[in-house]
Amino acid sequence: MHPSLLQDSVRGCPKEIPHNEKLLSLKYESLDYDNSENQLFLEEERRMSFLGFKCLEISRWVICGLIGFLTGLIACCIDIAVENLAGVKYYVVKQNIEKFTEVGGLSISLILWAVLNSAFVMLGAVIVAFFEPGAAGSGIPQIKCYLNGVKIPRVVRLKTLVVKVCGVICSVAGGLAVGKEGPMIHSGAVVAAGVSQGRSTSLKKDFKIFEYFRRDTEKRDFVSAGAAAGVSAAFGAPVGGVLFSLEEGASFWNQMLTWRIFFASMISTFTLNFFLSIYNNKPGDLSSPGLINFGRFESDVSVCLLLSSPKPCGLLGALFNILNYWLTIFRIRYVHRPCLQVMEAMLVAAVTATVSFAMIYFSNDCQPLGPDQSEDYPLQLFCADGEYNSMATAFFNTPERSVRSLFHNPPGRLFYNPLTLSLFTLTYFFLACWTYGLTVSAGVFIPSLLIGAHRTLARLVSIMFVCRSLSQVWAVPGKYAFNGSCRGIVRMTLSLTVIMVEATGNVTYGLPIMLVLLTAKIVGDYFVEGLYDIHIKLQSVPFLHLEAPATSHWLTAREVMGAPVTCFNRIEKVGTIVDVLSNTSTNHNLGKICGLILRSQLIVLLKHKVRELARSRLTQRKLQLKDFRDAYPRFPPIQSIHVSQDERECMMDLTEFMNPTPYTVPQETSLPRVFKLFRALGLRHLVVVDSENRVVGLVTRKDLARYHLGKHGLEEMQLAQT
Amino acid sequence: MYIFQVVALLIALLYYGNAQTSTVAVNHTILGSELSADGLKQLAAIVAPQSPVFHPSRGSYFSLNLLSAFPEDLEVSDYCVELLAIFGQRYSTYVNCLVSAARPVKVCQNCYGSYDNLMDIYTNISSDQMGPGNVSCRDSLLRSDRLMLVFLLYNNLEDIWTGSECNSCVSLGLHSLTNDTLYFMATLNQSLRCFEKFQQGNHSALCKECKATYRGLNELYSRMEKNRTLCIDIEDSMNMTRRLWSKNFNCSFPRAENVPVIAVSSFMLFLPIIFYLSSFLHSEQKKRKLIHPKRAKSNTSLVNIQDRLS
């Protein structure tokens, strides 16, 4: 951030190390949630009428409604596309398997299945790896970072959205052990960022509306609404969505916002529900509020059983995270070329198909079909006529349907025997762990539901209950299964509890679910962080956690800050500015103590001034805030601005444009204090001054994020170029 | 609430009787159909102090089995009673038929006639057309009490009929089985005859010889399944046949190609290992360039801060 390569070359060759988790990347900048109250801003505010403010408020509501609507539509499209593509795939494979069961040659079916899977996944991986790497993964870590105040490059672009949606369709249809929930949240956020700006830079189309919202503060509010709408569409959980946004973006929460976000969530789940009911030819039925649908659970709770074993779940979650951590490090270090990434994804898809096929082939568990499972793709293979391979119900299906069939088989008929279930769980655990972090867009939620060590355990227990026929009332395997579902991986307790309660439509389970989640989180946290946090760390993102690391009170701003600070005079020569800007890639430059001006602002200034100067020096149009907004969010690099020798000699008055009242702290302020300011106000820069109010340094996000509590006490992360 | 109404009615009746006869005894009192023993006690408690006619010793008059006539206007007409009797007969006929056809399930093919009869009489009862003497039996038979027994009885059987989906096997007027069903039965019989023929001796011969007919039957069945022209009879007989074929005669497909499947699977599983090994060995490791931030103090050595302190 501060430094330049120049300095490095002076000191000698820059040191190179392999990628690890203790790095902060220079790639990420901070979002600026603090309004720059310069004179232009004040002027605009003065010009704005009372009615104008009212209109702004109304347009905020309209935007939130639009966000919800579009997010719901996207969810609907994803659902329909996945259903149909997967339907075609399974139909073809099923026909093939049926043919070859009789005449022999099942290995050909195996190859066909693997090839089909790989083909889908290849498509998904190619668009992600070659066109938009930002769309990889579930997108939840990225949105988490965005709401935290980190500007992840290209994370809320239209292109990302398109790639994300297509990618998730391909990867789910390709049979990977993934879900489509995480991508929904990302999609919602992108929709929000796009709609609220009233233009698309990718399409080069500006609708000239909502121009007021073109800055980080407003955009962030809408993005959190979008994320909430995404959650709500994914799980049919509007309140859970709001809480998710609250939990992730809570650092800059605005109470006024909550209601709007709730509105967006409601609209989104309703839209999805409405269009899906039309698609299913049951208009007005409104029975699928979310992408994932657990159906109804009957409510008789025997709490003692529900609480059977969250601890193993936490342990298993921790194991998942540790394995995934090592895998991700390996991927970052060695599998970084796009073609390798595509190959890896294809291999995973092929192996998933192979393992599934082998499982189905060697399974002896045959069960008759239930009355309501006619729409699935039952495989008979070597079962008696009229019975079907029950391993196939789990593997030969989209993950979402497997979840549903696992949770919802009637207690009397043991659809899965314990062996089938444990094998399925074990394989799925490793597959999901291997899959997450591939260069495909996919979520981890459904797999984590499906894995459930815990679920297996709980389920085994409950099945044993049935076997011993201790009590028929207790024997509702699906319920324990549900409560057992392993959520030790993710660890967002509050919103997840509410999401689960809402998704099942059953408040009765609130307490058990909560206790299970809590225990799983505590157990899991003891060993390793949550999966998303791990991935954020591995991406070298300067993420500000809830609080400054403990035992950091002795660190003062003087030690934390970057220094020396580049200072300009109030009226500065253009040449000097251009030189300074070209030399460093820092983002902030400081007018003495009188104010703070951003690099982006300077660049816009230069651009316009230069143009004005070229035309005529007399008819200088006054720069307005609009000019800054038009350039947002992609400010041109300094290299693109050409300044002639003549212009270099001109003087530029920065008074109007700088923020005259930046936040400052004295040198002796402790790190936690600075941290709190940053977290609560969403700052990007904090000026450190001495006793005479002279600038001595500047604290930025990376200066704060680099401290973390390691094994040996407080450790410092290194800055690196990635 | 209801009890009170009945009580009020009875009190009124008692007084009526009192005024009419002025005798000591009321030798017939009508019990409402819902009046339970509890209700009676309550009634006695309320009525006893006021009415001289009511003595505990005469409690035997209030027997639950006592059936006496209501006044004319509350009586069920003869016509309706007749209908009810016919309903009872047909009802028991149908139920008998059902029970005898329970296993193996033949409820549709054996009992559609009696169901038709039952339905006729019930339609008669429930129609709102006036019978002879301008009476509608619908109200008096079907809806005059809480239990609505006739309705309940019929409803149960109707549920059985719907649940067994007999409608798809029986032609529209319930006069005969559909052609599809008859054809299926014929095919099924063909298969069964074949089974019988080869049952003695080696089952593999049976598997070979009867395969064609059995497969034809299976295909017919799945076609009918698609058209939704299945009823419980067909489903059950097919299930039995399938069980016979797969379990008794053991004619399912054997798991014969373990070797190729294992070979292909292990090849597939081997691929990622090669991939990761080769990318580990050949792909160059991604290095990160470290960057030294500008700091006020020269804490350039990025060592552990705690170490520095200690």
TrEMBL record, chain A:
Topology of this chain in the membrane: Multi-pass membrane protein
SMART domains: CBS
Stretches of the chain forming a coiled coil according to its record: none
Parts of the chain that traverse the membrane: 58-82, 103-131, 222-245, 257-279, 315-333, 345-362, 426-450, 496-518
Intracellular or extracellular location(s): Membrane
A GO term from the CC aspect: lysosomal membrane
Stored InterPro entries: CBS_dom, CBS_dom_sf, CIC-7, Cl-channel/antiporter, Cl-channel_core, ClC
Sample GO molecular function, one term: chloride channel activity
Pfam families, per database record: CBS, Voltage_CLC
Superkingdom: Eukaryota
Entry keyword set: CBS domain, Chloride, Ion transport, Membrane, Repeat, Transmembrane, Transmembrane helix, Transport
Family classification: Belongs to the chloride channel (TC 2.A.49) family.
Protein name: Chloride channel protein
Species the sequence originates in: Oncorhynchus kisutch (Coho salmon)
From TrEMBL, chain B:
Secretion signal, residue range per the UniProt entry: 1-19
Coiled-coil spans in chain: none
Keyword ATP-binding appears in the UniProt entry: no
A GO-annotated cellular component: cytosol
Assigned keywords, A-Z: Membrane, Signal, Transmembrane, Transmembrane helix
Pfam assignment, any one: OSTMP1
Bilayer-crossing regions: 259-281
Protein name as it appears in the record: Osteoclastosis associated transmembrane protein 1
